[in-house]
Design brief:
Blueprint lengths: L19 E2 L8 H14 L7 H14 L3 E5 L2 H11 L5 E5 L4 H8 L4 E5 L10 H7 L4 E7 L8 H11 L2 E5 L7 E2 L2 E2 L6 E5 L12 E5 L2 H11 L3 E3 L2 E2 L10 H12 L1 H19 L5 E3 L13 E5 L1 H4 L3 H10 L2 E2 L14 H4 L8 H7 L2 E4 L7 H16 L1 H8 L6 E7 L5 E7 L3
Parallel strand pairs: 1-15, 3-4, 3-5, 5-6, 6-9
Antiparallel strand pairs: 2-10, 7-8, 9-10, 11-12, 13-14, 14-16, 17-18
Length: 423
C-alpha cells in the first residue's frame, strides 16, 4: 500500500484529532479583559460611546497615525455607513475577488457594484482596467487590501483624483499593515476595518471607519448614532452602528497583545514557507518584509496542471485530515446571487479573477496551530502533490465512506463540504 492510500479521504485515520481552523480567535489577557468587563458592569455604562469605546478609538488613531477613528458594531455596517457618508450612488467599481460583504454593502443601498478584474498574477484591482470601466454613472472606487497585502493605492488615488471619484478602501484584512512606510488607514477618503472574531484584532464582533477628513468624520459620527447632534436633537439621518463597551474592552485587550499575535503569526508563516517552498506547482503568497505586516493569512496558490490535483481536491483532502483550509474567495462575488443573475456574462471580462479563484487556498494559522502541526500539514501537502495524478484518478472512483454533509467552521458560515463520517 502506498502512503497516500492511508489518507483519511480514503478511509484512514485523520492526522489531527481536533479541527484546525482558519481565523481561530485570538483572546489575549483574560484577566485584563474580565477586569474591564467588571468595571463596565459596575459603571452600568454598557453602550452609547462610553469610556472604553472612546479609549479604543483613540488607541487605534494613535497606532495608525490617523486623525479620526469611529468604532462600529461590525465591519459590514461600517462599510455601509462609509458608502452613504461619501455620497456614493449610481455605480461603484469594485473587485469580485473579495468577501461578499464588500459588494452587498453597495447593493443594499441600491448602488450598483461594477466588477473589475484583478491584475494578472495578483489579487488586487488592475488600475488600467478600472480606468476603462469608468462611465458617467461611476461615483467611486472600492479597493480591497486582500489578505493584508495592500492594493495599488497610488494608481487608484490618481484615477480617483483625475476623474473626480470617491475612493474607499476595504481594509478588513489589513489592520496593522503598512504601505510604502505609511500605515494602512491613511489612504483614500476613508478606510474600513473589521474586528470580527476571525481577524487578528477582534472585538468579538466589530469594525471601524478611519479617515483624515474632519468633515467626513463628523458626518460618520452623526450617521452612526441616529443623527443625534445632542440630547433630543437629531440633525442628520442616521442608523445605529455603535460599538458596545464590552466589545471595545475586548478590542483594547487585543491591542495590548497585538505584537504577541503578530509574532506568532510571523513564526507560523515562516514555518509554512519553509515547509512548502519547492513543492512543484505550489506557490506560497509572500509578504513584503520591508513593510509592517500582521501575517494573519497564509495563502497558497496551486497550479493544477503541474500538481495533478486541483485546489478543491487538495482542500477536500486536508479537511478530512481535520485541516480546515478555505477557498478565499471562491467562486468570486460575480458568481453569487444576485450578481450572477444581474451580470450573467461577467466571466468574460473577469478572466484573471476566474483563474485565481480556482487556484488559492488559505491554511490554518495563529493559535490554531503549532510548529509541529504545520510540519505535518506540509508533509500531507508534499505527499499529495508528489502523487497528484494517482490521487486524482483514485478520487474519481466511488468512496463508500465519503458522503456529503453540512459542516460549520468555527466562526464561519455554513457550507456544504465532503467529510468523513464519523470523525
Amino acid at each position: 500500500m502506498k502512503a497516500w492510500e492511508n489518507l483519511a479521504i480514503f478511509g484512514g485515520k485523520p492526522t489531527f484529532e481536533k479541527p484546525l481552523h482558519v481565523g481561530y480567535p485570538n483572546i489575549g489577557n483574560r484577566a485584563a479583559l474580565f477586569e474591564r468587563i467588571n468595571d463596565i458592569l459596575d459603571r452600568r455604562w454598557l453602550t452609547n460611546m462610553g469610556p472604553y469605546s472612546q479609549e479604543f478609538e483613540q488607541r487605534i488613531s494613535d497606532m495608525l497615525g490617523v486623525k479620526h477613528c469611529i468604532a462600529m458594531c461590525n465591519g459590514t455596517v461600517a462599510l455601509e455607513i462609509a458608502i452613504r457618508a461619501l455620497g456614493l450612488t449610481g455605480e461603484v467599481i469594485v473587485p469580485s475577488m473579495t468577501f461578499i460583504a464588500t459588494v452587498h454593502a453597495l447593493q443594499w443601498q441600491e448602488v450598483t457594484p461594477i466588477f473589475c478584474d484583478i491584475a494578472p498574477g495578483e489579487f488586487h484591482l488592475d488600475p488600467e482596467k478600472v480606468e476603462a470601466m469608468i462611465t458617467p454613472r461611476t461615483t467611486g472606487i472600492i479597493g480591497v487590501h486582500l489578505w493584508g497585502r495592500p492594493c495599488h493605492v497610488e494608481a487608484l488615488t490618481r484615477i480617483a483624483q483625475n476623474r473626480g471619484l470617491k475612493l474607499l478602501f476595504d481594509a478588513a484584512h489589513a489592520f496593522g499593515c503598512s504601505h510604502n512606510g505609511h500605515m494602512i488607514g491613511n489612504f483614500g477618503n476613508a478606510e474600513v476595518f473589521s474586528f470580527h472574531a476571525t481577524k487578528c484584532i477582534n472585538t468579538f464582533e466589530g469594525g471601524a471607519i478611519v479617515t483624515n477628513d474632519d468633515e467626513l468624520a463628523e458626518k460618520i459620527r452623526l450617521m452612526t448614532n441616529f443623527g443625534f447632534g445632542g440630547t433630543d436633537k437629531v440633525i442628520y439621518i442616521g442608523t445605529n452602528g455603535k460599538m458596545n463597551e464590552v466589545s471595545a474592552a475586548m478590542g483594547i485587550t487585543s491591542l495590548e497583545d497585538f505584537e504577541t499575535f503578530i509574532e506568532l503569526n510571523r513564526s507560523n508563516y515562516q514555518t509554512y514557507v519553509r515547509e512548502l517552498t519547492g513543492i512543484r506547482g505550489l506557490r506560497p503568497v509572500m509578504y513584503d518584509e520591508q513593510e509592517r505586516n500582521n501575517y494573519h493569512y497564509v495563502v497558497l496558490e496551486l497550479d493544477e496542471a503541474v500538481t495533478g490535483v486541483s485546489r478543491d481536491q487538495l482542500v477536500d483532502i486536508l479537511r478530512t485530515e481535520n485541516v480546515l483550509a478555505r477557498r478565499y474567495f471562491y467562486p468570486g462575488c460575480h458568481n453569487m446571487e444576485p450578481y450572477r443573475s444581474y451580470f450573467p456574462l461577467s466571466q468574460l471580462w473577469l478572466p484573471e479573477t476566474e483563474r485565481m479563484a480556482k487556484r488559492v487556498l488559505v491554511l490554518p494559522t495563529g493559535a490554531a496551530v503549532t510548529t509541529e502541526s504545520i510540519k505535518l500539514i506540509g508533509q500531507i501537502i508534499r505527499m499529495v502533490v508528489s502523487s497528484g495524478r494517482e490521487i486524482r484518478d483514485r478520487l474519481k472512483q466511488p468512496v463508500p465512506a465519503l458522503q456529503p454533509r453540512v459542516v460549520q467552521d468555527q466562526n464561519h458560515e455554513l457550507s456544504a463540504e465532503l467529510e468523513i463520517v464519523p470523525r
